[in-house]
Amino acid sequence: MRKYLIIGVQGSGKGTQAGLLAKAYDLVHINVGDIFRWHVQQHTKLGALVRRTMAAGELIGDEHVEKIVRDRLEQHDWNYGFIIDGFPRNRRQTEFFLESYDIDGVIHLDLPDDEVRRRVLARRLCPNCGMDYNLIYDRPAEEGICEVCGHELVRRADDTEEALSERLRTYNEKTNPILDLLRRKEYVFTVNAAQSVDEVQTSIREKLGLDF
Ligand code: AMP
């Protein structure tokens, strides 16, 4: 059983790296931001509540986040383990998690703010099938059009310059300090996220001592 958290600023490639690791080692990939986006798309009660907070780049209330993580882990479909992406993001979430669960490692993806800006502002998403692109290194063949379903691509509502500045500020203020807390209790492995996708994945596996 392998239990990991992956923490990194927006655009550091958390989702991509967690997805690769999950696929290779049969882990359940829990993406808290995706679960919130699902609620917004499905117009659930929670979706209505979180829509504006997300669009402004602010954090959702801890009680909602904790419930989502707890409910997801209670499904117990993670026979080989899990990797949680986008959580914890502040001290309270960290303390909540460490009280209830033990983990084998925390992967910290490190990326400077100017590179975050460059990457995030180039992100595009297909609102129809969910495929994502990046105009720097993963452009669609036809500009602005999804290669999978032909729908027009959009920016995520929180990938604007304004929301990004807010998310960076929140990350530096609230999420960065929890790494110190996690360093004291758990293994934190910091990886340089400015490398290529493959290089980052290789560094993660080396640091976690995983076989290839
Ligand atoms: P992400 O896709 O991880 O960038 O998350 C998108 C948005 O979902 C964030 O800007 C927050 O509004 C919300 N969110 C995701 N994870 C958390 C969390 N652990 N705590 C609070 N809000 C979160």
UniProtKB/TrEMBL annotation:
Presence of the UniProt keyword Nucleus in the record: no
The protein, known as: Adenylate kinase
Keywords: ATP-binding, Cytoplasm, Kinase, Metal-binding, Nucleotide biosynthesis, Nucleotide-binding, Transferase, Zinc
Binding positions (Zn(2+)): C126, C129, C146, C149
CDD domains for this protein: ADK (cd01428)
Residues given in the record as AMP binding sites: R37, E58, L59, I60, G86, F87, P88, R89, Q93, R156, R167
Keyword Ligase assigned: no
Pfam family, one: ADK_lid
Organism placement in taxonomy: Bacteria, Bacillati, Actinomycetota, Actinomycetes, Streptosporangiales
Domain Adenylate kinase active site lid residue range list: 123-158
